[in-house]
Amino acid sequence: MNWLDDIRWDRDGLVPVIAQELGSNDVLMFAYMNREALAATAARGQAVYWSRSRQRLWHKGEESGHFQTVHDIRLDCDNDVVLLKVTQEGHQPGIACHTGRHSCFFQRYDDGQWTTVDPVLKDPGSIYR
Amino acid sequence: MNWLDDIRWDRDGLVPVIAQELGSNDVLMFAYMNREALAATAARGQAVYWSRSRQRLWHKGEESGHFQTVHDIRLDCDNDVVLLKVTQEGHQPGIACHTGRHSCFFQRYDDGQWTTVDPVLKDPGSIYR
Within 13 Å of residue B79, how many CA atoms lie on the same side as its CB? Predict the structure, then answer.
């Protein structure tokens, strides 16, 4: 498929992916996809990433039920970064982070240190059964 | 400095960085920083990246005048991705992309191909003198 060949995959065969929430435009998370993951994401309309730690396809929400419905797939000017517009399913407001928070970017730099500034919306122990 | 040691730098000593526009929340661009770049960004309040192609510090806007004022520096749950909230200076609306567009993510996946969907706001030839 030609559109997959347009991507400049990195030396590990991966492309970095930013997931942004439709509506709020909040950046929810950052992960990677390989060719198979991006093809699956486009085909099923739900985000499928490549888990580098587990070295396998990772259908986001497969354990937590927090799937991501994909509305838009964007590619950057260098053809080496993907941006998804998603609806974060399974909880209101959406929980994208494995810590039970809305977004993974909950640590803010403040005067020489990182401070956690966003609340846990749901206990991770009750998300991952 | 301890807050820099908290970051899980990759095998090249870099961390991926997402630049998001304050207000609109638009994702403008994606780049990398090394330790020195992130320290400089925090110290001067303007985005300083590491250019992988040129292998040197890249003070965004140094050629174009399109600097990025940094309002917020966030770190993700795994301590290996940075998110900046910025004001894209030098043009209204902001131009973050070297193609003269607002955002680098101007190609949209549509039915098996990538389509350019965002306009050029200023001729790149007149940006890079």
Answer: 11
The partner residue sitting opposite A77, judged by closest CB among B78, B106, B109, is B106
Annotate B81-120 with DSSP letters as a single string.
Answer: -EEEEEEE-SSSS---STTS-S-S--EEEETTEEEE-S--
Which chain B residues are Cβ-neighbours of A100 within 8 angstroms?
A: none
Enter the tokens of residue A5.
Answer: 């060949």
Tokens of A53: 């730690």
ipTM over 0.95: yes
pLDDT, mean over chain B:
96
Contact B74 A109 (CB under 8 A): yes
Say which of B24, B77, B97 has its CB closest to residue A77. Answer: B97
The partner residue sitting opposite A25, judged by closest CB among B25, B30, B107, is: B25
Is A83 close to B106, i.e. CB distance below 8 A? Answer: no
Widest distance between CA atoms in chain B: 48
Which amino acid does the sequence have at A97?
A: C
Tens of pLDDT, residues A30-73: 999 999 999 999 999 999 999 999 999 999 999 999 999 999 99
Q: Do A107 and B76 touch (CB under 8 A)?
A: yes
DSSP string spanning A39-85?
A: HHHHHHSB-EEEETTTTEEEETTTTTS--EEEEEEEE-TTS--EEEE
Question: Which positions ≥6 away from B89 have C-beta within 8 Å?
Answer: B61, B65, B66, B67, B68, B69
